[in-house]
């Protein structure tokens, strides 16, 4: 893998424009978007899919790091838009678990079942920038306590004191091992950093965050059209196209958005 690439920052969660709802309710609880494309930097996060814009993805380019960025934790080949990460974050270690070197980790992927098939992962301290900081670790076991917590045991680490220093470390897989998403869904790390333009080709700004909400994901856009960040709902009426290769999203500037 290229030594200059960064790990993705958000877990492999997904997002995408949610379909318009009838009178009540909103898109599915997972990130989903009418997809036009994919991408983000460093380590990313791998997550869930759904009819809402949570994970955002297009025929897929993305950011490596975890199987998701925003209010919650969230999988570089250089594209014309955001870069694809080398690693995608799928969990974050919170504390030692028991006396035999196990650690408890918060799940940062929409596909928690993947832990049971993993034979190795890569770990790095929070904020690590170069892939040189990622250390390969063979897994002795990975057991899900629930969809939000997994207990991991690494080869060669058999005592609690040996893993005490791993608190806060990110756990990742190579970008190539991220779970493929259906058409119209994207990983959050693929969406962050994209340029946003209106259908009239007016530059609105860049997406700096994705917040997962019950009805649809919300893209936070920072740019010249407003002194404050613009909140864009990831729904089909607003998000018209996501082009990961071009590094841009086209939106309908409905009244009240800015």
Which structural class fits the helix and strand makeup?
mainly beta
Q: Kindly, what is the distance between the CA atoms of the first and last residues, rounded to a whole number of angstroms? A: 42 Å
* Sheet of most strands: 6 strands, antiparallel, barrel
As laid out across the biggest beta sheet, the strand order is: 3-4-7-6-5-8
Mean pLDDT equals 76
Low-confidence stretches: 1-10, 20-43, 47-81
User: What value does the Rg take, in angstroms?
Assistant: 18 Å
Shape verdict: elongated
Q: Please bin the fraction of helical residues.
A: under 10%
Description:
With 258 residues, the protein is mostly beta strands. The protein has 2 helices and 15 strands. It has one domain (1-94, 106-131, 169-258). The strands form 3 sheets. It has a 6-stranded antiparallel beta barrel. The longest helix is centred in the middle third of the chain and has 4 residues, at 160-163.
């Amino acid at each position: 893998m290229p030594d200059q690439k960064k790990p993705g920052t958000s877990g492999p969660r997904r997002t995408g424009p949610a379909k318009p709802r009838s009178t009540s309710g909103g898109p599915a609880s997972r990130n989903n978007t009418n997809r036009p494309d994919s991408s983000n930097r460093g380590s990313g996060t791998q997550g869930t899919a759904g009819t809402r814009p949570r994970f955002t993805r297009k025929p897929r380019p993305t950011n490596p790091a975890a199987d998701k960025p925003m209010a919650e934790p969230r999988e570089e080949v250089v594209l014309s838009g955001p870069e694809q990460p080398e690693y995608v974050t799928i969990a974050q270690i919170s504390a030692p678990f028991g006396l035999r070197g196990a650690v408890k980790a918060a799940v940062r992927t929409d596909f928690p079942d993947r832990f049971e098939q993993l034979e190795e992962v890569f770990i790095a301290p929070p904020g690590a920038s170069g892939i040189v900081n990622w250390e390969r670790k063979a897994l002795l076991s990975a057991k899900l306590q629930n969809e939000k917590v997994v207990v991991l045991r690494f080869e060669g680490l058999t005592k609690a004191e040996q893993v005490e220093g791993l608190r806060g470390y990110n756990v990742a897989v190579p970008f190539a091992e991220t779970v493929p998403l259906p058409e119209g869904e994207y990983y959050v790390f693929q969406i962050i950093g994209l340029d946003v333009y209106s259908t009239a080709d007016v530059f609105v700004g860049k997406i700096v965050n994705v917040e997962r909400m019950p009805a649809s994901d919300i893209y936070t856009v920072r740019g010249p059209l407003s002194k404050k960040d613009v909140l864009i709902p990831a729904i089909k009426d607003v998000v018209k196209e996501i082009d990961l290769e071009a590094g841009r999203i086209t939106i309908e500037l409905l009244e009240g958005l800015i």
